Amino acid sequence: MRGCYLSSRSALPGEPFAKIQALGNDFIWFLKYVDGEPPRHLLADIPLLCHRHRGIGSDGVIFWGPARGNVYPLWFFNRDGSAAEVCGNGLRALCVAGRDLDLVRPGEVWFEISGERFPVEAPQEGNIASVGLGIPHIPRTGSLFDDVREELRGMDGGGGLIYVPNPHIVVFEEMAKPEGEREKIAAKLSALLPEGANVGFVCACGKHRLNLEVWERGVGRTLACGSGAGAAWAIAIDQGLLEGAGTVHQPGGDLLVDQRDDERLWISGEASLIFTGSLPWAR
To answer: Which of 4, 50, 87, 95 does the annotation list as catalytic?
Structure first.
């Protein structure tokens, strides 16, 4: 199946939304289709809506639009209102929650974000969903590569810069650093890129498992990051630390990561609908 549709739940007064999550990485998904681009008044309120104490509380916000052929446009925004190139956990959560809300039929669904298309496998039942992220790109030259490499030289395990397509800097650790120290390192490394970067701290556990903790640009420390898991796995494969498909463990749970014949990084793990609601204003 390739298709999504709105159900009678869109008749909720005001602005209907769903709170959804994947491995604790949570999102506000606005259920009405966007006409052209997300409404400005909602974009302006993203930091408030995402606030853990004064709003709904989430790591990000998702808007979607009607199909163009068999592809549905999506817009992802981080907690601070900045746009994201992709959100693997958000895509997985959207499909599982969308199925439960009768908005997404099980099967393969395609979404387009910033001109790039991503396949998602929505489950027939259960809460395990898979998404194909972009083909990983690991820079080998250039000023950004040099700047990141220079910073990583002073760290015990090295790491690397990668795009999937979100920019990520992966830091390998022989021993896990305290959270406060990680936060300072993440801020320094993210600032090396003009658009910022997600920074993941990784410990390898054998040839098929990684432990990962990510500081996301525009969010901060998160329970899980889908593209971050893909980035950590790809850099570990590139540097000979892993062999084949592997499990990436994060504070929110586990993701299975592999690279299929289409060369995309695929991530698979749990996701669910938390609740639905309606904001007291409409477009």
So the answer is: 87
**Residue found under tokens 């083909």:** 135
List pLDDT tens digits, range 175-189: 888 999 999 999 999
Distance, C-alpha 237 to centroid of its chain: 20
Half-sphere exposure of 112 (CA within 13 A, CB side): 12
4 a catalytic residue: no
Is 143-263 a CATH 3.10.310.10 domain? yes
Give the model confidence (pLDDT) of 68-107 as tens digits: 877 889 999 999 999 999 999 999 999 999 999 999 988 8
How many helices (H) and strands (E) would you count in the chain?
6, 16
Whether 7 shows a pLDDT value over 90: the answer reads no
Is the model's pLDDT at 37 over the cut of 80? yes
* Nearby residues of 115 by Cβ (< 8 Å), 6 or more positions away: none
Average pLDDT over the chain, rounded to whole? 91
Tell which CATH classification among 3.30.1600.10, 3.30.70.20, 3.40.50.300, 3.10.310.10 matches the domain 8-133+269-279: 3.10.310.10
Residues constituting the chain: 283
| Cα dihedral across residues 93, 45, 194, 179: positive or negative | negative
Which residue blocks in the chain are alpha helix, DSSP H? 40-44, 46-50, 88-100, 143-153, 179-190, 226-238
Check 4, 50, 95, 225 and give the catalytic one.
Answer: 225
225 is catalytic: yes
